Amino acid sequence: MFTDETFIELQASTIDVLVQANLNFKTVMYLNNRFPTNTSFIQGLRVLLVDNDVNFCNSLTPMLQSYGVKVQTAFLGEQALEIFEQWQPDILLNGISSPKEDAYALIHQVRTLTGERGRVVPAIALTGAVTEDMYQRALLAGFSLCFAKPVVIDDFVAVLGILALANNAHSPSC
Asked: Which of 21, 69, 86, 102 has the greatest number of C-beta atoms within 10 Å?
């Protein structure tokens, strides 16, 4: 049962994305697999990447930066929350498969903090494998989406832009 439907059509190319809002999370459904070739709409987007996998962070960060995305990384929840409060990112990317950290605790803290400030920050759960149970748990915990690692960078960048636009988190610099 969805309470709000917004259809976003990016004119840069033929991408049609239906963003359906339900409770406190957004689900992005693709109507086709063609993504924009002009990614200027995400330049300057502020993304906080939280993952205990240093290699993953070291590979994803420069790929996102090549699209003009500003990236801060954190490897621990406490460090991530400090960066989140000070830097106020547009989107949170959070690895949820860490045996040492509870990513669900971090998203709970972020949702509490953003709720107090009246701000919604899209959050994407990142994991090695997405199961239906994991996906549902992530959504119920407060994540907007769940993505399997490794990410396909062009698709991932398109989703970041769509989430930012859908949540008015970032004004495009076109």
From this structure: 69
Q: What's the token pair of residue 135?
A: 């996906």
Read off the pTM.
Answer: 0.76
Check if the beta carbon of residue 33 is closer than 8 Å to that of residue 165: no
51 and 92 Cβ atoms separated by less than 8 Å:
no
CA distances from 160 to 100, 105, 145 (A): 27, 23, 10
pLDDT in tens, 58-70: 999 999 999 999 9
CB–CB of 131/148 below 8 Å? Answer: no
Tokens 């119920």, residue? 140
Tokens representing 154 are 């062009």
Q: pLDDT for 11-47, tens place per residue?
A: 222 233 333 333 233 333 344 444 445 667 788 999 9
Helix (H/G/I), strand (E/B), else coil: 141: helix
A 10 A CB-CB count for 146 gives: 18
By the 8 A CB rule, do 106 and 77 touch?
yes
